[in-house]
Write a structure and sequence with these properties.
The protein is α/β, with parallel strands linked by helices and about 350 residues long. The chain contains eleven helices and 13 strands. Strand 2, helix 2 and strand 3 form a beta-alpha-beta unit.
């Protein structure tokens, strides 16, 4: 049964996760208003091809605007009368934040405040927004739990994502705006981002070039297949958070609140050694990678691991696609898309 007969607004619709979520909701029979500024952080033609696929489907409308422009964004909200919003528009990437901090403030902070303001003034029932596993920063306790303190981010990108959670909480508390923050763990899959490891590894190996392997390969990542991520989002969207009546200000639980506010991890809960991930890529490509072993990069962390108990409790779902299945799907797509 549908939870809304109005279009669902998805920002970042030309992006990796936004594209897959838009496609899923359209296939479920919902109308989608996609918003994206189609910037050149990575290959614009890939973004345009994602949009072309979405525009071929019934029920998709596209608005090419920047969420940092409050007036244009508000016009979109008013024009389409949306009740549910998924904010996936953001300046992504940990390393890029070291050299282009202003891009993160414009999109991830100013843009997010504009989203909150538009939701507040347009009677939005539920705002779901992308946070990141990066917010766990210097934390060492594994697995990362939404009940953990996240006061020590190690990149500006992570700091802006934590800021999103704090801002969302203030709007939940002051204006009763229900919001759910989703901490994604290393999302990969077809139509993925060219700046991410799987894409970089695949391209380099096919071109016979060496791959850069950081922390000398001693990394673990909770690699999460994009289809699992969008399944989690689509289940959470109609699950509007309520105030937690048992929330104790003397022992505050960071994952919920006296306000209608929740945060969730969306991860595979199965950390994989980076070298094992690379072996799976090599197996699918039928080629060995020449590895350029390097120290860990500034702003990076050696391991991620998601505790998804909160997600299970809320919507009875846990990501479960293996890297064997997920990497094969990505490489099949890559060879098709780039005609390799």
């Amino acid at each position: 049964m549908s939870y809304t007969n109005k279009p669902i607004l998805i920002t970042g619709a030309a992006g990796f996760i936004g594209y897959h979520l838009s496609e899923k909701l359209l296939d479920q029979g919902y109308s989608v208003v996609g918003v994206d500024n189609v910037n050149d952080y990575y290959d614009v033609s890939l973004k345009r091809d994602r949009l072309k696929n979405l525009q071929s489907k019934k029920g998709f409308t596209f608005e090419e605007i920047n969420i940092a422009d409050r007036s244009l964004l508000n016009d979109v909200f008013k024009k389409h009368g949306v009740e549910y919003v998924v904010n996936l528009a953001a300046q992504a990437g940990v390393r890029y934040s070291l050299t282009h901090p202003e891009a993160y403030i414009d999109s991830n902070v100013t843009g997010f405040v504009n989203i909150l303001e538009c939701c507040r003034h347009n009677e939005v029932k539920h705002l779901v927004y992308a946070s990141s596993s990066s917010v766990y920063g210097a934390n060492k306790k594994m697995p990362f739990s939404v009940k953990d303190n996240i006061d020590h981010p190690v990149s500006l990108y992570a700091a802006t994502k934590k800021a999103n959670e704090l801002l969302a909480h203030s709007y939940a508390a002051n204006f009763n705006l229900p919001s759910s923050g989703l901490r994604f763990f290393t999302v990969y899959g077809p139509w993925g981002r060219p700046d991410m490891a799987l894409f970089l590894f695949t391209k380099a190996i096919l071109e016979g070039k060496p791959i850069d392997v950081y922390n000398y390969g001693k990394m673990k990542r909770d690699f999460t297949y994009v289809g699992d991520v969008v399944e989690g989002i689509s289940r959470l969207l109609p699950s509007i958070p309520l105030a937690n009546k048992e929330w104790d200000p003397m022992r505050p639980d960071p994952s919920s609140s006296f306000a209608p506010y929740k945060v969730f991890n969306i991860g595979n809960s199965n950390p994989v050694e980076l070298m094992d991930y690379i072996k799976e890529v090599e197996k699918n490509l039928g080629a060995q990678a020449e590895k350029n072993l390097l120290p860990i990069q500034t702003g990076d962390v050696p391991e991620t691991y998601a505790d998804v108990n909160a997600l299970m409790e809320a919507v009875e779902y846990k990501p479960n696609t293996s890297i064997e299945e997920g990497i094969k799907k990505f490489i099949d797509w890559y060879k098709w898309y780039y005609k390799k």
